[in-house]
Design a protein that fits this description.
Elements lengths: L4 E5 L4 H10 L5 E5 L11 E3 L7 H8 L4 E4 L9 H22 L3 E7 L23 H20 L2 E7 L1 E2 L8 H4 E2 L1 H13 L4 E6 L11 H5 L12 H4 L7 H5 L15
Parallel strand pairs: 1-2, 1-4, 2-3, 4-5, 5-6, 6-9, 7-8
The structure holds D-galactaro-1,5-lactone.
Length: 263
């Protein structure tokens, strides 16, 4: 797929910043967007602040964009109103703008919280229907559906990445299963940009010995993870919750009935 202009939404966040550095200079135009400050202008970068809930702004953002890596939106649990604006209205605006702009592909940052209510005793693959563990997880399942709808109806190809725990360190025992190193995240994005497919769901996870997810679809697309959380096992094995729900389900604390970021 020929890419003249690539857009990263949520480019000011941790994953967005990693990807910005990784993709810089690869395509003729790299457009970055976020609601937060993206720093001073740099040659070769188009900085376009936008609110995802603002349809007119998102229309403008997608103009001339061949491929979008959509990391923007609310990244953890939040009250309904926040989820509604950022992750429901925001995704509608993004896919509608992509349709109008003739965007060919969207890589969507879904989350393991779309399937958080599977038990840790189960191995699942990308065919596993959503079992959202939170309002946030529900909005990610919706994102996977809107991506499917626009692919079937309007031919916008999509990769939905159910990201696990993507950060440089492994914070606890759960992450021995869910961790994805930032370098492996970039490898998965590269596969998603280069491979030939219409619509796929994959897991954003490293080659962890304890992974709960069969990621053979990602491997078919060319993803070759190089990292394994197991090397952190001695440090984090004992970092567990004493809450049974948290320890039973893949989504961890997000599954607790009292888990909430409500004010
Ligand atoms: C996510 O979806 C969140 O964005 C991140 O902050 C972590 O909570 C991660 O899932 C996780 O499950 O570890």
């Amino acid at each position: 797929m020929k890419i003249e202009r690539l857009l990263i939404t949520g480019a000011g966040g941790a994953l967005g910043s990693t990807l910005r550095a990784h993709l810089k200079g690869r395509y003729p135009h790299l457009r970055l967007s976020d609601r937060v400050d993206l720093g001073p202008p740099e040659p070769g970068l188009e900085l376009c602040p936008a609110e995802l809930a603002d349809a007119a702004a998102v229309d403008k953002l997608l103009e001339g964009v061949d491929v979008c890596v959509h990391l923007g939106g609310q990244p953890v649990e939040a009250p309904w109103e926040v989820i509604l604006n950022s992750n429901i209205v925001g995704t509608i605006n993004l896919w509608e703008a992509a349709r109008k702009a003739g965007t060919k592909r969207i890589l969507f940052a879904s989350s393991n919280h779309a399937i958080g209510f599977y038990r840790r005793s189960r191995q699942i693959d990308d065919e596993a229907p959503p079992r959202p563990d939170s309002r946030y997880g529900l909005s990610k399942a919706w994102g996977e559906d809107i991506a499917r709808y626009y692919q079937l109806k309007h031919g916008i190809s999509a990769l939905c990445i159910r990201i696990g725990t993507c950060r440089p360190d492994v914070p606890d025992a759960r992450a021995l299963s869910t961790w994805q190193s930032p370098a492996d995240f970039c490898r998965l994005i590269d596969a998603g940009l280069e491979a030939d497919y219409d619509y796929e769901i994959v897991y954003g996870v490293s080659a962890n010995q304890r992974s709960w997810w069969d990621n053979s679809t990602a491997e078919r697309l060319g993803y070759r993870p190089q990292d394994d959380a197991e090397r952190f096992a001695d440090e984090v094995e004992s970092i567990r919750s004493d809450d049974a729900v948290t320890e039973t389900f893949q989504g961890g604390a997000f599954c607790r009935p009292d888990f909430s970021n409500d004010p």
